[in-house]
C-alpha cells in the first residue's frame, strides 16, 4: 500500500512539474530565443558600465539610468562598427586583387597537375578556360536540377536572411530594456526562489558572478596580447595590412576558430598578393602557428583558466566536451559554463561531505 503524500511533498511535486514544463517550453521555443539570449549576455557584460555612469553626480544632478543605458549601448555598437570598418576596407582591397590573380593561379595549377592527370587518364584542364567549359557542360546536362536547387536555396537563404535581420533589429531593443530594468529583474527572480534556499542561492549567484567577471577580464587580456602580437609579427614580416589583420585576429579570438581562421585567410591572401615567392606564406604559417601555441598553451590556460579556477587540462577538456555536446555554441560558452558548473559542483561536494550518507 503506497504511503500518502504530505502537503509539502505535493507542493514540491507540483512546482517541480511547473518548472519542468517551463524548461520544456524554453527548449521548444529555442529558435526564437536567440536575440533574447544574446541580449542577456550583452546586458550582463555591459551592466557594470551602466551602473558606473548612473552613479555619476554633477553637483545635484544624477545621470538617469535610461541615459546611461543609451550612452553605453552607443559606445558598444560604435566599437562593433569600428571593427567592421577595419575589416571591410581590407576585404575591398584584397578581393579584387585576388580575383585578378585567380587566372594565373589556375594556370600554374594546370601546368603542375595537368600532365599527371593526363597520365592517369583524366583529360581535364584546370585553368580558367577548362573550368568554364566544365561548368557549361554540367549546366547543359543537368540544368533543370541545378535550377531547382538554386530556387530552393534562394527560398531557404531568404528565410535565413530575414531571420538574421529580425535578430539584429531585436537585439538592441531587448538589450535596452534588459539594461534599464536589470536590477529590478534580478530582484524579481530572487523573489521567486523558495525562502529556505534564498541564502545559498544568492551566495552561489555572487560566486558565479565573481568568476564570470574574472573570466571576462582574462579574455580581454588574451585578446589584447594577441592583437599586439599578430600586428607586430606581421609588421616585422613586411605585410602592408599587418595592423588591421592583426587587430581582427586578436579581437575575434574570443570566438574559437572563427577569429583565427578569418585572420589566417586574410593573411594568406595578403601573402599571395604581396609576395612573388613562398616567403610570405611561410611567414604566415610561422606567425600563426606560434600564435596558436602561445594562445593555447600559455595565454588562455594562464589568463583565463586560472582566473576561473580551472587548470590547463580542465580548460582543454571543457572546450572538447562542450564542443562535442553543443557544437560551435558549446565551444564558445565552454569556459564560462564550466565556471558555473564548478561552483555548483563545489557546493554539491560540500553538501555530500556533510551528509549522513558520507559520514555514516
Your description of this structure?
By secondary structure, this protein is mainly α. The protein has two domains: 33-54 and 61-192, no CATH class; 200-360. It has 13 helices and two strands. It has helices at residues 7-28, 34-54, 65-119, 128-141, 143-180, 182-191, 198-236, 242-251, 258-274, 279-305, 312-332, 334-354, 356-359; strands at residues 57-58, 61-62. The protein has a two-stranded antiparallel ribbon. A hairpin with a 2-residue loop joins strand 1 (57-58) and strand 2 (61-62). Helix 2 (34-54) packs across helix 3. The protein is globular. The chain starts with 6 loop residues before the first helix and ends with a helix. 17% of the residues are buried. The model has no long low-confidence stretch (mean pLDDT 75).
Question: Portion of residues in helices?
Answer: over 70%
**Taking Cα atoms only, what radius of gyration do you get, to the nearest Å?**
27 Å
Cα end-to-end separation: 30 Å
| Mean pLDDT figure | 75
Give the domain tally: 2
Strand order of the largest sheet: 1-2
In the predicted model, the low-confidence regions spanning at least 5 consecutive residues are none
Question: What letter string, H or E per element, gives the SSE order?
Answer: HHEEHHHHHHHHHHH
Protein name: AI-2E family transporter
Pfam family, one: AI-2E_transport
Keywords: Membrane, Transmembrane, Transmembrane helix
Main location: membrane
Amino acid at each position: 500500500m503506497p504511503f500518502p503524500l504530505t502537503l509539502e511533498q505535493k507542493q514540491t511535486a507540483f512546482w517541480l512539474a511547473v518548472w519542468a514544463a517551463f524548461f520544456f517550453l524554453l527548449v521548444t521555443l529555442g529558435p526564437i530565443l536567440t536575440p533574447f539570449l544574446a541580449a542577456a549576455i550583452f546586458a550582463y557584460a555591459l551592466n557594470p558600465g551602466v551602473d558606473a555612469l548612473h552613479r555619476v553626480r554633477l553637483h545635484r544632478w544624477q545621470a538617469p539610468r535610461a541615459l546611461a543605458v543609451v550612452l553605453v549601448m552607443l559606445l558598444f555598437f560604435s566599437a562593433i562598427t569600428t571593427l567592421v570598418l577595419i575589416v571591410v576596407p581590407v576585404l575591398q582591397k584584397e578581393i579584387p586583387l585576388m580575383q585578378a590573380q585567380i587566372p594565373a593561379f589556375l594556370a600554374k595549377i594546370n601546368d603542375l597537375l595537368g600532365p599527371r592527370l593526363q597520365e592517369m587518364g583524366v583529360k581535364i584542364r584546370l585553368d580558367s578556360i577548362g573550368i568554364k567549359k566544365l561548368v557549361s557542360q554540367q549546366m547543359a546536362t543537368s540544368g533543370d536540377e541545378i535550377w531547382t536547387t538554386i530556387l530552393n536555396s534562394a527560398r531557404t537563404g531568404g528565410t535565413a536572411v530575414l531571420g538574421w535581420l529580425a535578430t539584429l533589429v531585436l537585439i538592441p531593443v531587448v538589450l535596452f530594456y534588459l539594461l534599464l530594468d536589470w536590477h529590478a529583474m534580478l530582484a524579481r527572480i530572487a523573489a521567486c526562489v523558495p525562502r529556505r534556499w534564498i541564502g545559498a542561492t544568492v551566495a552561489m549567484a555572487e560566486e558565479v558572478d565573481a568568476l564570470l567577471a574574472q573570466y571576462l577580464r582574462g579574455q580581454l587580456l588574451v585578446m589584447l596580447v594577441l592583437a599586439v602580437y599578430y600586428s607586430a609579427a606581421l609588421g616585422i614580416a613586411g605585410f602592408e595590412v599587418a595592423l588591421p589583420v592583426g587587430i581582427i585576429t586578436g579581437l575575434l579570438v574570443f570566438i574559437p576558430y572563427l577569429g583565427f581562421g578569418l585572420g589566417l585567410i586574410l593573411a594568406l591572401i595578403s601573402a599571395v598578393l604581396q609576395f612573388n615567392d613562398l616567403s610570405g606564406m611561410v611567414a604566415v604559417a610561422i606567425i600563426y602557428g606560434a600564435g596558436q601555441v602561445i594562445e593555447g598553451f600559455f595565454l588562455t590556460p594562464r589568463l583565463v583558466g586560472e582566473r576561473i579556477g580551472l587548470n590547463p587540462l580542465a580548460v582543454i577538456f571543457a572546450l572538447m566536451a562542450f564542443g562535442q555536446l553543443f557544437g560551435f555554441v558549446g565551444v564558445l560558452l565552454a569556459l564560462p559554463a564550466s565556471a558555473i558548473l564548478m561552483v555548483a559542483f563545489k557546493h554539491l561536494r560540500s553538501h555530500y561531505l556533510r551528509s549522513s550518507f558520507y559520514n555514516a
